[in-house]
User: Fold Quinone oxidoreductase from Advenella faeciporci.
Amino acid sequence: MAQAIVIHQPGGPGVLQPQTITVGKPGPNELRIRQTAIGVNFHDVYVRSGLYQTLPLPGIPGIEAVGIVEETGSQVTNFTVGDRIGYITRSYGVYTSERLLPADLAIRLPDSISDDLAATLLLKGLTAEMLVKQVHPVKPGERVLVHAAAGGVGRLLCQWASHLGATVIGTVGNAQKAELARQAGCAHTILYREENVVERVQDITNGKGVNVAYDSVGKDTFQGSLDSLAICGHLVNFGQSSGSVAPFEVSALFAKSNSLTRPSVFHYARERSMLDSMSNNLFNALEQGAIKAEPGMAFALADAAKAHEMLESRERTGALLLKP
Assistant:
């Protein structure tokens, strides 16, 4: 038996209800894991609220966690009992003390990374790796715009792009977040509530624009991101915290031969070799000091609703996690 958080209907944080579940034996290619730390993400909030209707109800939310292998399926050869693993999944089922997991999703964790750090870093870190190494490989001398630069993925993007030799421009909501963005490698910060982002980008870049804009905000920033691009610039829209982007004319890209991408980390990590390569790049970047991250603020698993309330309040800029 395991303790889990189950959603029976979409709604506010109160729909996150503790419940006892039966886990069972692992299938031939599965692991049974005892979870030690669970990441809390805005994706979880969107699933809980019903904005994303991707979790069949009743269901257990969550997309990243860390745990210890308790039992292996008969055909599993690359993991053994006692291994410490992390994972991300788009099949949910994470908010629980124990679970069955396809072995192909498991990532063996280096000793240098704690459970709490890994539980809140894997999704954001693999997303950042995808963005700066694959979707648009950042090159020395490039000009990079990062929206929500003080956020979880934003700070990793700023650090990594700066390490790769880019000049990073970050948009933030206030002076406190601007300082966080500067500490993460932003050469320039823009207070989007007080300044015109496009005008400031043009001023900073001497009218050239940016080679790539990483935009996780969506509706409110999409046009500004597009207008901030250089000739042959690339707009990478990887989130929609302000809402979905409205339909637009593809011919709008023609004016500056721009390109637009809407990537998902799960597609870039869809094969075992791809997941291994991405996670190795992430762990190497951490060990080399190219990026830094701190463990999140912990809540008991039964207090998942409180964690969601804090996340939605945006009172905290650091990561949040649940401890079974």
